[in-house]
Amino acid sequence: MLLAVMCMTSACVTSQARKTQTAGFLGDYSQLKEGDKDEAQLVYLNPDADLASYTSILMEPIRIYASKENSMMMNVSSEQQRTILNYADAAIREKLSEDYTFVEQPGPGVIRLRIALTEAEDSRVILDTVSTIVPIGLAISGIKSLATGSGAFVGSAGVEAELQDSLTGTRLMAAVDRRVGGKVTGKFDKFDKWHAVKNAIDYWAEQLETRLAEQRKK
User: Fold this and answer.
1) How far, in Å, CA of 61 to CA of 133, rounded?
2) Top mean-pLDDT range of 10-14, 66-70, 88-92
3) How far apart are the first and last CA of the chain?
4) In sequence order, which residues have a C-beta less than 8 Å from that of residue 57 and are 6 or more positions away?
5) Mind listing the pLDDT tens digit for each residue in 111-153?
6) Number of domains comprising the chain
7) In a domain, 203, yes or no
């Protein structure tokens, strides 16, 4: 559904990792199974869910799940972390807003969307940073201002995502995926690390849009 990683230059290529790593955000992974070629590494689709009946989305603040010990995210300021998370929030809203209305309260026909950017296997510590709702244009342009600081999720990273019925909490869909950076080429540039982050988030948002569109057609 979503997920990918970051590497050090805009010329690098990312690909799906061979080994699945979970971070604890979803809590229960027993329903998830190995995904097909074009899917996330682990996926779940509720066979009884009528996703075509949902018209609105309640998106929780996006979180970072990373271990405090040996975490590369500890080298990134809270401001930079929030900029990344806000970009992810804006990218998803932009992709899904043509088909869904974003709301702030649960209700009939409302999907609850939960997302975490994850860093490492068994990273069950939530850093003190979550996304905030800001105008899409500002959030999308904000990541371009990140010209200094250490790159986040360098090498490999992933996302865990879950869609629930906002009233009952019933899980509708869920996914875990991780991607790794490929061969790095070209000259290093301070902005490139964040350009890779942007590309990864764009990929995840597009995958989510695609999966939901597929389900609405059934």
Assistant:
1) 8
2) 88-92
3) 17
4) 96, 100, 101, 102, 103, 110, 111, 112, 113
5) 999 999 886 544 556 666 788 876 777 766 666 555 444 445 5
6) 1
7) yes
CATH number for the domain spanning 98: value is 3.30.160
Residue 206 CA to residue 91 CA, distance in Å, equals 9
| pLDDT tens digits for range 57-77 | 999 999 988 766 666 676 777
Structural domain harbouring 117 = 14-216
**Rounded-to-10 torsion of CA 174, 31, 44, 178:** 60
d(CA 163, CA 161) in angstroms, rounded, equals 7
Dump the DSSP string for 142-176.
Answer: HGGG--SSPPSSBSEEEEEEEEEETTT--EEEEEE
- At 149, list the tokens: 């600081």
Handedness of CA 17, 22, 23, 27 (dihedral sign): positive
Whole-prediction pTM value? 0.79
What is d(CA 22, CA 29) in angstroms, rounded to the nearest whole number?
Answer: 9
Residue 118 CB coordination number (10 Å): 26
The per-residue pLDDT for 186 is: 47
Q: How far apart are CA 107 and CA 151, in angstroms?
A: 39
Q: Name, in order, each residue with C-beta under 8 angstroms of 205's C-beta and a sequence gap of 6 or more.
A: 2, 88, 91, 92, 94, 95, 96
CA distance 165 to 58: 10
Report the SS3 class of residue 104. coil
Give domain status of residue 2, yes or no: no
Q: How far apart are CA 66 and CA 24, in angstroms?
A: 10
